[in-house]
Fold each of these.
Amino acid sequence: MSKTSAIGVFDSGLGGLTAVKELIRFLPNENIVYFGDTSRVPYGNRSKETITRYAMQDARFLQTKDIKILIAACGTVSSVAGNLGDEFHMPYTGVVNPTAYAAASTTKNGKIGVIGTTATINSSSYKHAIENMNSSLNVYQRDCPLFVPLVEEGWLHDPVTDEVAARYLKELQDKQVDTLILGCTHYPLLRSTIRKIMGDGVCLVNPAYETALELGRLLEEKGLAGEGTEKNEFPYRFYVSDLADEFKAFANSILPYDVEMTKKIDIEKY
Ligand code: DGL
């Protein structure tokens, strides 16, 4: 592992590209290798045992790619699978701690909302992390299981999505949260819908953004910050477990570069 090694990012599917987008923006000198488990997505309605087994396989695959740090971009994995850094003996961050820290530092009225997949909300990962930082804060949680399929369907600005979001967010509005964690990879893509419902007074915290900042700090601290790539070498490589062409099309729609390489691998081998 050295400065020139890549950042290894994984997610249950294509949602983790929201994290890649922020990493490219904040850390343009880094190589990134991404794995999206597109054959087994979604993780968010599975058991802790299954999510942990999948996460271990995803991380084992990335370990074969000369990475210097491992990132679970997936809110569900970060919430449920424990500290993979201990398991793999390498620097690691999930999205929960940096995001919880940002939310705890942002709230003015001490009321924070968290939305995420069912597995994330059942784990209370964000709630525990925030309460550990400051036990006087109140955290209100809501799972939003229909958000992921709505985003994958491309219904980002659709009356159906508005209606679903209004129902999910009602109880958090009633609690008058002033800070809301978008605790799932897909939710930043619903930002404008959520903003419309929650109003301008509520700060929306994006785990992708907070984790990119934390990663920059971690790399500096460990003396592992990258210094750019060789000319002509494309710094971003993508691997998936299924539907490589569909993944590539989605990646090209949200990333600032055209994705050159998307390769399908057999994740069950790892
Ligand atoms: N990537 C997942 C997360 O951030 C959402 C999709 C899934 O359920 O696998 O929680």
Amino acid sequence: MKNKFYITTPIYYPSAEAHIGHAYCSTMCDILARYKRMRGVETYFLTGTDEHGEKIQKKALEKGVTPQQYVDEISAKFKHLWKAMKISNDDFIRTTDEKHIKTVQKVFSKLYENGDIYLGKYEGWYCTPCESFWTDTQVGEDHLCPDCGRPVHRDTEECYFFKTQKYLPDLLKYFDENPKFITPVARKNEMVNTFIKPGLADLSISRTTFDWGVPVLENNKHVMYVWLDALCNYISALGYGSDNDELFKKFWGEDSEIVHVVGADITRFHTIYWPMFLKGINLRMPDRVFVHGLLDLNGEKMSKSKGNVVSPLPLIDRYGVDAVRWFLAKEFSFGSDGRFTPELFAERVNMDLANNFGNLVNRTTAMISKYFEGKVPAYKNPGQKEKDIEELTRKTVQKYELLMDDLQLTEAFDAVVELLNAANKYIEESKPWELSKSGNIEQLGNVMAVLANSIITCAKLLSPALVETAPKVFVLFGLSKEQEKYEYVNKFCVYEGNVVTRGEPLFPRLDVKVETEFIQSLTA
Ligand code: MSP
């Protein structure tokens, strides 16, 4: 494991208000960032907003405000949402930040000096919402944008091009030598088959038909095309090319693991052009681009214009931030497409949080209060069943770490949920109430001690997702600051004498019918 970790979300377009789809990506990155910090890895977590381009300029015009006023307002809403979602980003980059603009201009100039850029004419099919040109084959007979499905129009324009062929051999070599560069691996095959094999065109990197963009210093008729501008955020935020580049040296250095998490819709830009730009300016490649799936709402693509979006804010108000974070992390595998429906949400919260984790904590704290006056008993001469739970706990920690380090966070949490299931089953099998009746106090103590141990371990492993609940569990089990340390996941049954309190249920069981109606009323 490298000793530094740099993780980024895409920078979001402030052309629409933040919805649960945006929250999905930020939450997954937040979980990974919190996990790495918990493991003692020096971590930098970046998110932000992508504020230039024709679409933003048009939106501002429609609203009768300046583009800057428009992006200021929406970018503040993104920040507000991240606070509510407990996103622990270290910085929030805006492409209108002065330091970002300077970096992009520097990158353009370097590529220009290299001879990687030339002035040409673009003719093709243009999709305004996606700000992308497409070829005849890509738009097909219906002339629809291959990304968003909306109609495209014929357009021609003088622009600067980036020569992609020069860096293609290096890129393919990097793909081959780094099988985990693009994961899930099907995404890599898609890039090769859809974009590279048919012949990769040069990329247009400037525009002349609008001016809400970073000016090209070499030619004042041009502003940067949004993708060159946007991708540079990952290095501008760290101070690349400025006098203040300590963060850059630290988190873009060889001993830093660099991970970009992106939605499936923008894989091409991150896995083909971004590595080429980096090569052009002589910087190292990211270690991984993890492509997550898209979340739909009730089976339909989320879209503000179709009135088909849901904001996480009212969900957080009613169910707490952990319920929302948990649903996003656990409902479908990170890397696959997923679905949000009110029923799935309520059922997921009930199944994992109320009935499983919450119930286990509740039962165990109640029994320790009743049988041992609220103190974790000693673990002495445990039987085979206790040893099995101990062994399963140990294996779960190992499995969880391997999966988390490989960015497979849903699967890592699956492993923890299996342990929770096993612990609940263990209560049924070991029948503490009978041990109490028959006066087998030593064995009853072992059962409670091993349960307390597994619960505390699970709370730690779940803490990157359950940011409010895990600390509550630590309090219920009277953990000292020392015992809260992550290293304790590998110490077994060391909580003897800890004072346990019975709290309120961590997650009240939801009435699925009532909650479904409530959530349904929020989709607008
Ligand atoms: N601004 C560009 C990205 C530039 S990165 C250098 C952009 N912005 S976006 O706002 O349209 O989307 C950014 C990301 O938001 C997606 O890649 C994805 O991570 C996330 N999502 C937006 N809608 C989503 C869903 N419905 N579901 C899951 N994630 C979604 O593209």
Amino acid sequence: MFSQVSTPPSAPPAPQLRAAIRDLCEERKAVILAHYYQDDAIQDVADFIGDSLELSRKAASTEAEVIVFCGVHFMAETAKILNPGKTVLVPDLEAGCSLADACPAEAFAAFRAQHPDHYVVSYINCSAAVKAQSDLICTSSNAVHLIEQLPVERPILFAPDQNLGRWVARQTGRELTFWPGSCIVHETFSEQALLQLRLQHPEAEVIAHPECQQHLLDLADFIGSTSKLLERVTSSPAESFIVLTEPGILHQMRRRAPQKSFHDVPGADGCSCNTCPYMRLNTMEKLWRCLEQLEPGIELEESLRQRALAPIERMLAMSA
Ligand code: 13P
Ligand code: SF4
């Protein structure tokens, strides 16, 4: 006797995927949250697009029964920490983050033990197990505002992005002790290509994400999180911009300011490694499939979830 193995349904052809995804969202009472670094088509089909802080806020307030997180693992995990009773899906579970990967929980515990008197501030780009060891979570949108609220006499440990940490230290005048992590995408931009672009477009404003290395931030006219960069392209009188962050965001920049021009900065050696290889693992087809099958989902052990929740709730309260 042969047991019957059901073959998973195949995804609709590309031109019908968008409508099929929206139909499934309705059926499953699902909401799609997407980060600005996702492919254009995913941004266009999402219910809400935002930076890490906005997406966390949205995840905390949504009434949908199912959250499909089109971003990377730590973002979906944050949504699950905030919504233990809901189904939280991510189109590709392998969509990680070099910052989160470079800060393993056990090594981080040993690092903390060397600095027992320090207040631990962790960038949201880290695992639940690192969040659980932190006093406060921050994003690139609110890091300066949060650190400014901490007592000046208290030493601070900042993890896992040393580039963001150094920028926050310069903005706040606080001395921070850094975990030595960085983002593989923001470390790849070529200074030579940036200088070349400035020569070609001398009128352009250079705008940069604080995950970039300092020698690039020193060349920027404006520095901020993805949402702040997006606001800048409409609030600035400049007509053209050189953008030092993942180029997925150019889709929304062109939407908000269609009359302006935008230039992304290539990686060293002209490679196309300025796109985030993790974010780009999510595709429209995988998005359709995860809505259809209601997997892969994020699962978390309850005591870990509770320990990771406290510093996230502190962040949401302090950045309100
Ligand atoms: P934002 O919070 O600025 O969107 O940054 C998230 C991120 O992963 C940047 O690389
Ligand atoms: Fe992580 Fe960098 Fe990708 Fe952002 S761009 S998700 S920090 S690897």
Amino acid sequence: MSLASLVLVINCGSSSLKFSVLSPDEDAPLLSGLAEKLGLADACITFKSGADHKTTQSLSEASHHQALRALFARLDDMALLPRLYAIGHRVAHGGRDFQQSVLIDAQVIARIRELSALAPLHNPANLIGIDAAMALLPTLPQVAVFDTAFHQTLSPAAYTYAIPLEYQHNHQVRRYGFHGTSHRFIAAEAVKRLDLDPDDHGILIAHLGNGSSVCAVKNGISVDTSMGMTPLEGLVMGTRCGDLDFGAAAYIARCSGQSFEAVYEMVNNESGLLGISGLSSDCRALQEARRQGDERAALAIEVMVHRLARHLGAHLASLHRFDALIFTGGIGENSALVRELTAQKLAIFGIALDSKKNEYLYGGRDGVISLPGSPLVAVIPTNEEKMIAQDAAAIASTLCAAVSG
Ligand code: ADP
């Protein structure tokens, strides 16, 4: 390993900062963690290194900038700071402008700021992380990796909403899709691990976590996805409703006297698994409640699975052939129940699972879970940090080559 071979990956939220320090060739980070409750009295930062080693440090009222300082102090103690050669930032929305990851400069920052109109909860928070990292380590190349970029290959038929086209032309109202970094990582891993023809394959990816989306990938390229202009569209998620008749939303606003903003808040933060179960947004908790006979928990899981199967079936229509269905994300990687129920609904497409193999895969294990004769169904753990690190490393290397050449 060369001296400077590590990438710092930052995923910055409005009051949190998630980080990983890793070599782009390795799956596991050397150090990772989360600074949370930033700006509040009980702000803290947790560092994880190795399999189980975890330490938490209080950061009373710390800003993102101060949280990064604490991280850099820790990296210095571990002699990792001089080994950093790039920083990769997860950025939520790249609009039409960013089809791939880019080196961050003043123009890129200005454009990410303008795109905040499309992602008001995420882009401004991502920029806080970028500003803090640039202020503290100004000489390191910093790279923006967009959640939307992988889906910029969608055709107009797939990304256009059927409303007056002027809204698309004048206000950028169209489908963009998210989780692109995860879908891109899984698409590449699927080709390698399932021995698919890189130039002729069709796969479906179900990324199921707190946020969930489906992606149809044709020969390495995203051709359809379930999230839309915002991450609200599509599947039933932890607290998001996914697809909802706009007429129902308008009716709710009218009959309850709630403002449009209040309804928007409800469909984003009080709906999905939480809204149906009235119990939790967490799939694992709902599986347990279902096991104990809780009817609303059971219904929440049924609705989630029904919607997922419906979207997977619909996304097949965007493929020219069907080689594999991949499950990933916290639920996709761990819930044999959700995979089994979904597969049962997809029997019409010839999908059948080996229940023993399905039960065996959780906690980071990967492999094929389908029976012979079925289209391949596999579990592949996602690794967005690794994908971001690889992009940042590739762009930093090009930069070094350009400077030394
Ligand atoms: P995020 O979208 O925030 O990255 P994750 O990908 O970590 O979220 O997924 C979180 C979801 O995964 C939660 O609903 C959690 O309950 C679910 N999950 C994690 N482990 C299991 C498990 N063993 N069985 C079922 N669901 C699980």
